[in-house]
Each structure stands twice: as C-alpha cells, then as structure tokens.
Amino acid sequence: MNKYGLKGNAPEELSGVLQLIAFLYVGVAYLNDANLSNNELDRMVEILKKYGYKDEDSIKLIQETVSWFDDSLKKDVWQDNIIQCVKLLKNSKGWDEELKDTIHTDLYSINTADGLIDLKGDKFTGEKQLKVVNTIMELF
User: Fold this and answer.
1) Fewer C-beta within 10 Å: the chain N or C terminus?
2) How many other C-beta atoms are found inside a 10 Å radius of the C-beta of residue 7?
C-alpha cells in the first residue's frame, strides 16, 4: 500500500487527480464486460485530451493505469482501489459537483464506447452499463 492508501502496483507518487480518474475509467470499462476494447481505450485518450493531455501523455497514462488495474485484479484489491480513488478525489482541492458530473458523463461515455448491444449475444446492454456507472457514482 502506498502513502495514499492505494494497493497493488499503484504509483508511489500521484501525478495528479487525473491518475485517480483514469483508474475509474479503466475500472468501469473492465466491469462492463471484463474486456478493455480499443474503442474504450480510444475514448479514454479522447477524454484525457479534453483535460489538456497530449496524445502520447494520454496513452502513457492509460497504459500505466491498465497495468495498475490488472495488478489490482490479480491481487483482488481493485474494489479497494476504486473506493480509495473516490475518497481521494472527493477530498482533493478543486472537487465540486461540476467535476463529479463531468466524471459521470465520462464514465458513461467510456462504458458505451462499444455500443449498447452485446455483439456476442445480440442483447441490449444499456441497462447493465448504466448500472455499472451509477454504482461507481454512488460512492461519491
């Protein structure tokens, strides 16, 4: 566990709140269907660019975060890390309802990057996707 209470191969030093937000992005994409698709990863990069990151910086942050999330899965601490990320975000300087709403929109955008139909089973998945996002947002 690092000094921020994050487990697994979490960064020893956080580069900023976007590192915490990126963990939520990767988490919600994974929880949706246990797969990080190129569409979801591309959407994360697009969103990080809105925050002023360059392409290469966005890609690097997402790669580091995926590695951290994968390690968290293996060590079964991913839920602890999601909860801790939320706590750290809520207590960060600059936290407000506008940022919360932005994160909510971003999570839903990532979660629906592959569409609302399960291509393997031809089932509508929008309800499940919304539930995954809302469950994470309830932590705030």
Assistant:
1) N
2) 18
Longest dimension (CA), the chain: 45
Inter-residue contact 110 to 29 (CB < 8 Å)? yes
Assess contact for 43 and 109: CB atoms under 8 A: yes
Query: Which phi-psi region, left, alpha or beta, contains residue 76 (left: φ > 0; alpha: ψ -120 to 50)?
Result: left
Closest listed residue to residue 2, CA positions, set 95, 85, 109: 85
Q: What is the pTM (predicted TM-score) of this model?
A: 0.84
| pLDDT, tens digit only, all 140 positions of the chain | 778 899 988 888 887 889 999 999 999 888 877 888 899 999 999 999 998 989 899 999 999 999 999 999 999 999 999 999 999 999 998 899 999 999 999 998 998 887 655 545 555 455 555 566 667 777 76
Q: Quote the CA–CA distance of 20 and 140 in Å, as a whole number.
A: 13
User: What are the structure tokens assigned to 39, written together?
Assistant: 């569409």
Picking from 21, 39, 25, 18, the residue whose alpha carbon sits closest to that of residue 108 is 25
